[in-house]
Amino acid sequence: MKAVGWSLENSFGALPDLLFTPLAPTPVTRPTLVALNAPLAKDLGLDFSTLSEQEQAELFTGNRLPEGAQPLAQAYAGHQFGHFTMLGDGRAIVLGEQTTPSGARVDIQFKGSGRTPYSRNGDGRAALGPMLREYIISEAMAALGIPTTRSLAVAATGEWVYRETPEPGAILTRVAASHLRVGTFQYVAMRQDLSALAKLTQYALARHYPERLGDANPALSLLEAVIERQLALIVEWMRVGFIHGVMNTDNMAISGETIDYGPCAFMDAYHRETVFSSIDHAGRYAYGNQPTIAKWNLARLAEALLPLMDAEQNRAVALAEAAISDFVPRYNALWLRMMGDKFGLEGEEEGDAALIRELLDWMQDEGADFTRTFHGLRDGLPLDGELGQALSLTGWRQRWLARLQRNAGGLAAGQAVMARVNPVVIPRNHRVEEALEAASKEGDLGPMQALLAALAQPYAEGPELARYQESPKPDERVYQTFCGT
Ligand SMILES: Nc1ncnc2c1ncn2[C@@H]1O[C@H](COP(=O)(O)OP(=O)(O)OP(=O)(O)O)[C@@H](O)[C@H]1O
Ligand SMILES: [Mg+2]
């Protein structure tokens, strides 16, 4: 294949054998390219313009592997809705790691590329709609400035996959800091291979936390590092109203990136108990539960690492508990700072938390749109419109304005920080579904391209964005999202 700039290596393949199975993607019958992320390709040091469209389609379905690829499927385990299972890439293949021009090492992975030894009863394939969904939402998350895996391309396979109805098959090319999951550690711990666990720990530190490599207790240090990244990540999800939907331990990345955009969604009306996923009947992964679940998942990581932390189990448990015990107060402090920014509050005052909670409670009672309300606060100062009138009734508006005046930089400083952290455009479900419907049912990619363009600058204002800012009308409302796996 003509030079496109691949520099693939596979350091993961040097890890102990139990962690993977070398395996090539299953060829597909009639590949076509559906989406290619040119700016991301550039950031990766890749240029596909030397390839014909057919060659690109062959490349992004795995019919022709890029030079240097050493494909493999990774093994992992996971607690799915609280139940432990041995899993692994049942429909994914890592091709290798690309070193970017800025020196970062990232995995290049196909999702939907055929059966593997970890497929269990699955067909190893993915449908076009869900892969485009992952493309749209992961790219929106990146533009929002939130750590995430990225989407380089989606290619259709020309084959049908059978879900509730036959759907066109597709493969997503995903780019990730790595595909190490909490579940990867659980898998090795379950296999009781201490030497492999130690090697995996060193590998994770080298790849994601090199500054900690010399630490006296590597397993404890890794746990602390992952806790810190996950705290930061969950607070970011809460900032934009993102609901992951399947926070199983196999869907929590050691790198701190958001991974696996299954039935995820952005909340329209603010409500802490919001759930979209069709399979989350008990609301385990509801918006407001995400920090609690993150802590639960991290406790599973801690358990997996225990045998490395100290040969004496009681001492190991004490170390792990100490690392995780202040998760809630740390989260609360980060959440308060994040919310302070959303409300434009400089510094911290005693009454801030109450002021913030009062408005959130009001939003929940009123069914107010999360993104639009903050956008309204941000742009409506001194809030003399409709929103301001409603908030004047409770006296909230007056108290908030008085608090903003106490900012060192006054109202203007508050407004500046609010403009930085309160998005104007998010990938609203009804717009995402509309774009997916056009793409996968009618082959019309126009609505998706327009949506992607709006999502690329989520903090910018502009009259052309109005249709992406609107809350769904009653008949447009999406109540459930499906994995479509
Ligand atoms: N169609 C399928 N065929 C085989 N295995 C599947 C299929 N769909 C999902 N799986 C496997 O089931 C497990 C749970 O699926 P889940 O939806 O969390 O992951 P995923 O979306 O396939 O992948 P990832 O977490 O890498 O984004 C994973 O091990 C996944 O590989
Ligand atoms: Mg998954």
TrEMBL record:
Pfam families: SelO. The active site is at D250 (proton acceptor). It comes from the Bacteria. One of its GO terms (molecular function) is manganese ion binding. It is an enzyme of class 2 (transferase). Keywords: ATP-binding, Magnesium, Manganese, Metal-binding, Nucleotide-binding, Nucleotidyltransferase, Transferase. Its EC number is 2.7.7.-, 2.7.7.108. ATP binds at G88, G90, R91, K111, D123, G124, R174, R181, D260. Mg(2+) binds at N251, D260. Its cofactor is Mg(2+); Mn(2+). It catalyses: L-tyrosyl-[protein] + UTP = O-(5'-uridylyl)-L-tyrosyl-[protein] + diphosphate; L-seryl-[protein] + UTP = O-(5'-uridylyl)-L-seryl-[protein] + diphosphate; L-tyrosyl-[protein] + ATP = O-(5'-adenylyl)-L-tyrosyl-[protein] + diphosphate; L-histidyl-[protein] + UTP = N(tele)-(5'-uridylyl)-L-histidyl-[protein] + diphosphate. Belongs to the SELO family. PANTHER family: PROTEIN ADENYLYLTRANSFERASE SELO, MITOCHONDRIAL. NCBIfam families: PRK00029.1. Nucleotidyltransferase involved in the post-translational modification of proteins. It can catalyze the addition of adenosine monophosphate (AMP) or uridine monophosphate (UMP) to a protein, resulting in modifications known as AMPylation and UMPylation. This is Protein nucleotidyltransferase YdiU. The gene is ydiU.
